């Protein structure tokens, strides 16, 4: 067959068939020339001198086809899924949003405000320090008798991903006044003292006194054991805090292991956005040696999730472009 292909090609090149009158054309020879499916024999004068002929684009030519970029609407469910996973991880380990349920922290925080709570630094051994606003689990029925909220399906989902607090979690928010080893005292209307040093408390609700003149716990002197904190609300005459829970199993103290984290930012409403720094009075004479690990995270879970999704999108698009240029 290879000889026929060569001969037929020579016949076309040298016109040998016209030099032999009366000789019938070989159909096989014509097929061998025109089909392009057989490889010319070695030594022939074919297109590649014995090499396979060049063919057009096809499934067997070895040329990679450009990958079609997936449409935005097809990628959207994937991106949403990634964002949800990141939000759950952030909520669990980094930062979580909480809603303020009462006026006990006025005017620092108003009812309905949303705060972001740093949950990262406790993983590195950081403990609450004086002056910080912290969220903690109810240590011993402090919220007994408080109304409970029955969330709808949307609220349940939002709390699951960290955009709303869970109705099942009984959490409180107060300011840390004393830590393990401190002696905190309130006499008459104040000032409040820690280890004998008077605190200047501009954050106390206007019209309130630092200490309350009552026999229910407003007058006290307590020594805080290691592993516990003493907390009070900024709205002193409207806060059921450590002072009024001294009859519980912890004597009004909050175990450090019940602290969720430090509130670092007022995130909502937007016109009340701002950080929650430690007041200067807690830094007097080295009263509060703040940990370097307590640097605040100031981004909401959904914001961090978006920041995590963006590199994934860029990586995917870079891969598509690289495939198209091969």
Structure in words:
With 326 residues, the protein is an alpha+beta fold. 23% of the residues lie in helices and 17% in strands. It contains five helices and twelve strands. It has helices at 2-14, 27-35, 72-93, 153-160, 301-324; strands at residues 95-99, 114-118, 133-137, 171-179, 183-186, 193-194, 197-198, 220-223, 228-232, 254-255, 259-268, 274-275. The strands form two sheets. Strands 1, 2, 3, 4, 9, 10, 11 and 12 form an eight-stranded antiparallel beta sheet that branches. Strands 7-6-5-8 form a four-stranded antiparallel beta sheet, with no helix packed on it. The longest helix is centred in the last third of the chain and has 24 residues, at 301-324. The radius of gyration is 39 Å and the shape is elongated. The relative contact order is 0.16.
In N-to-C order, the SSE pattern is: HHHEEEHEEEEEEEEEH
Mean pLDDT: 73
- The number of distinct helices, counting runs of at least 4 residues, comes to 5
What is the number of E strands?
Answer: 12
Flag low-confidence runs.
1-48, 55-59, 289-306
Q: In percent, how much strand structure appears in the residues? A: 15-25%
């Amino acid at each position: 067959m290879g000889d026929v292909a060569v001969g037929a090609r020579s016949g076309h090149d040298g016109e040998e068939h016209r030099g032999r009158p009366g000789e019938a054309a070989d159909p096989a020879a014509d097929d061998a020339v025109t089909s392009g499916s057989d490889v010319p024999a070695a030594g022939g004068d074919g297109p590649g001198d014995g090499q396979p002929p060049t063919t057009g684009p096809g499934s067997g030519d070895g040329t990679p086809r450009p990958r079609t970029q997936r449409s935005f609407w097809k990628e959207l469910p994937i991106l949403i899924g990634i964002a949800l996973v990141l939000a759950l991880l952030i909520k669990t380990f980094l930062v979580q949003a909480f809603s303020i349920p009462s006026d006990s922290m006025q005017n620092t925080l108003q009812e309905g405000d949303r705060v972001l709570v740093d949950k990262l630094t406790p993983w590195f051994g950081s403990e609450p320090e004086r002056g910080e606003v912290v969220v903690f689990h109810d240590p011993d029925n402090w919220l007994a008798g408080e109304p409970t909220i029955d969330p709808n399906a949307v609220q349940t989902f939002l709390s699951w991903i960290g955009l709303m607090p869970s109705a099942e979690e009984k959490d409180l928010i107060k300011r840390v006044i004393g830590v393990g080893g401190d002696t905190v005292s309130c006499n008459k209307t104040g000032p409040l003292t820690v280890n004998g040093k008077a605190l200047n408390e501009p954050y106390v609700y206007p019209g309130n006194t630092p200490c309350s003149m009552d026999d229910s716990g407003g007058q006290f002197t307590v020594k805080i054991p290691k592993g516990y904190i003493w907390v009070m609300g900024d709205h002193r005459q409207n806060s059921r805090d450590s002072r009024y829970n001294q009859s519980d199993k912890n004597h009004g103290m909050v175990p450090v292991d019940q602290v969720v984290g430090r509130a670092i930012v007022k995130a909502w409403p937007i016109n009340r956005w701002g950080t929650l720094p430690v007041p200067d009075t807690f830094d007097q004479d080295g009263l509060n040696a703040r940990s370097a690990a307590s640097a605040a995270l100031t981004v909401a879970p959904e914001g961090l999730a978006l920041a995590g999704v963006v590199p994934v999108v860029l990586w995917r698009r870079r891969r598509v472009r690289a495939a198209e240029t091969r």
